[in-house]
Design goal:
Elements lengths: L20 E2 L2 H4 L4 H16 L1 H23 L6 E4 L2 H11 L7 E5 L4 H8 L3 E5 L8 H10 L5 E7 L12 H9 L3 E5 L17 E5 L11 E5 L22 H4 L7 H16 L1 H19 L6 E2 L8 E5 L8 H15 L1 E2 L1 E3 L6 E5 L6 H15 L3
Parallel strand pairs: 1-11, 3-4, 3-5, 5-6, 6-7
Antiparallel strand pairs: 2-8, 7-8, 9-10, 10-13, 12-13
The chain binds pyridoxal-5'-phosphate.
């Protein structure tokens, strides 16, 4: 197995602590130095003349949205800037005016806060997906088999968090649309990771810019098909209410908008470094990490998608069966070994997810495997 080459200048673009190896970009992202600089300069501008800054915010948000929509390949009038994926989920579901009897289909790979957003509003039906399902076709069939006559909405991950699986593929979205099911896609990981993040034209799609899009935390997008736009509620009464979607949704009174206004810088940086080049590098690195981890006794790689910068493996049975056990193992790996990875819980035994990013090097994954071996030994 040949180690991929490091991304020239990649590590220097970030100010990550050298105390720990950051192999978990997928959870909270990381902000590159030039984006952090732009963010800071906006904060300084706001501090210097708050009136001038805040009075200009709605128009500047619209301008930032235009740049972001352009990079994502979507219509700026059909997208609103929001603070995170979880908020995007709530707004999408509120637009649908669900009643407690409506069913929302989710899978057991769905993200906790996003599924909880659905459970607050309707009856959630969870489709179990065996993490070892071999391919997209098997996933598609399993989801379709979970539909009932009362399914109104399918709320599906574009890429699942624990298992790094594509679920809401264009083929599945087309099948659901044909059956009259409204599709809401959790694209938290898509911007910056996928070449065509809005593929398949779901009714609603939300994605984080602060994960793979190099934006400051609190930056996300909600994209809405034309038929639903007029029904998306503003999260709070807005001075832009008379302008409707998307301005009323993104201008939520006095708040910190500096992250959202700096967000286009993240996508611009990706474009200037070469989006395809970053994707190829990150995915090769994650694949390298997964191949090394698979050498540890009891670790079983899950089916992988070569486009993605994340890979998942099952841990030996009995480890990380519950969220508390998973969190304890994650913290032990960080504190004792110095590696940040995602440990996910699953009935019977959870798994580990590693990510690849331009600041990572092959040596970090090699070090992880060397350090994990004795820790897992005998568990
Ligand atoms: C698939 C998925 N959806 C939603 C989220 C939640 O993102 P946020 O905390 O920005 O709402 C995450 C975060 O890791 C995720 O992986």
């Amino acid at each position: 197995m040949t180690a991929p080459a490091a991304f020239p200048g990649g590590a220097e673009l970030f100010r990550l602590s050298t105390e720990v190896a950051h192999l978990n970009h997928g959870s909270f992202g990381a902000v590159p130095v030039p984006v952090a600089r732009a963010h800071r300069s906006l904060a300084e501008e706001a501090a210097a003349d708050p009136d001038a800054f805040f009075l200009g915010v709605p128009d500047r948000l619209a301008e930032a949205r235009g740049r972001i929509a352009d990079r994502l390949g979507t219509d700026p009038e059909g997208a609103a800037l929001v603070t995170n994926a979880t908020e995007g989920a709530g707004l999408a579901l509120d637009a649908l005016r669900l009643t407690p009897d409506d069913e929302v289909l989710v899978t057991d790979h769905g993200y906790g806060t996003v599924v909880a957003a659905a459970a607050r509003r309707a009856r959630v039906v969870t489709v179990p997906l065996d993490p070892t399902l071999p391919d997209e076709e098997a996933v598609r069939k399993a989801v379709l088999a979970g539909l009932t006559p009362r399914t109104r909405v399918a709320l599906l991950d574009q890429i699942s968090s624990p298992t790094a699986r594509p679920i809401a593929t264009p083929a599945l979205l087309a099948d659901l649309a044909e059956r009259g099911v409204t599709t809401v896609v959790d694209g938290a990981h898509a911007p910056g990771m996928l070449a065509d993040p809005l593929a398949g034209a779901p009714d609603f799609w939300f994605g984080n810019l602060h994960k793979w899009g190099y934006a400051p935390p609190g930056s996300a997008v909600l994209a809405v098909a034309a038929a639903h736009r007029g029904r998306v509620p503003a999260p709070v009464p807005s001075w832009e209410d008379d302008r409707g979607f998307p301005r009323a949704v993104e201008y939520r009174a006095t708040a910190d908008y500096t992250g959202l206004l700096a967000a286009p810088e993240g996508l611009d940086l990706i474009a200037s470094l070469g989006a395809d080049r970053i994707r190829a590098h990150n995915s090769a690195l994650a694949a390298y990490g997964a191949e090394l981890l698979a050498e540890l006794p009891g670790l079983a790689p899950l089916p992988a998608d070569e486009r993605l910068a994340m890979r998942a493996l099952r841990l030996p049975p009995g480890l990380a069966r519950t969220p508390a056990e998973a969190a304890a193992l994650r913290e032990e790996i960080a504190a004792r070994l110095g590696f940040r990875v995602l440990i996910w819980a699953w009935p019977g035994g959870g798994g580990i997810r590693v990510c690849g990013q331009i600041y990572n090097t092959p040596g970090e994954y090699e070090g992880l495997v060397t350090a994990l071996r004795p820790l897992l030994d005998g568990r």
